[in-house]
Amino acid sequence: MGEPRIIVHDAATLAAVGREGAVERVLPLHERLWASAALRKAVLLLALGLIWEIYARQLDNPLLFPTLSETLSAMVERTRDGTLPLRAWTSLRVLFTGYGIGIALAAILTVLAISTRLGTDLLETLTAMFNPLPAIALLPLALIWFGLGSGSVVFVLIHSVLWAVALNTHSGFLGVSQTLRMVGRNYGLRGLPYVLRILVPAAFPSILTGLKIGWAFAWRTLIAAELVFGVSSGQGGLGWFIFENRNVLDIPAVFAGLLTVIVIGLVVENLVFRVIERRTVRRWGVHS
Length: 288
Hints:
Layout: E1 5-7, H1 11-18, E2 24-26, H2 29-34, H3 37-59, H4 68-80, H5 83-115, H6 117-130, H7 139-146, H8 150-174, H9 178-186, H10 191-233, H11 238-247, H12 251-279, H13 281-284
Antiparallel strand pairs: 1-2
Helix pairs in contact: 4-12, 5-6, 5-8, 5-10, 5-11, 7-8, 8-10, 9-10, 10-11, 10-12, 11-12
């Protein structure tokens, strides 16, 4: 493999290099490195971490704002003793349950909406009623209906996921061109095969956006719900970990819990969804 090359389209540069009989040039090392999105994001994270460390040292109040080094030290310590991994897994297990059920219900509602006028009316009515309702407002009802434990948390997670995924999926389906729809019908596709083979690939950018929004809503709702349900039932993940350490004024551990929440979010966004996008949207050549 040779050096990465780029074709130069600038007229002045073409005139200059044309005399030497070449229209290509090798990119300098710093330009090739800066072209990497992962490297740019890593630099931004390092800069934010440096700002955090400098500000906390100038503030000099660990009970108010610990330094990044203190937070990382607490994070490493709680990881070694197994506390953070266990709490993170507890949160993720509940999250996957609510997220999966929410996606399944959104798929059912969207297929009904795209198939019948009554289904469209049902989806539009339900989303107008429940989408503006914050999931956290359902916590008292969830306690009454499902009692203390993970069932109540799963209920509010389903609410936070369902409407975002359903709305984006339905919007994506409506945006599919009539040409693709006619192609599917000409091949005799009807019902679920028509949805899976024609509508889903064409609308997948919108579907993926809905999945990302649903994930973000669910992750936020889960941590907030655990701050309540974890305290009530003695069961909980990262939200309970944060609340528990706040009560004993172990602020570096509180920040370690918050940092763990951020790290998991970054991993899901930049690895999981990025891989899905690369293997679907980019491979299929569809764009939102």
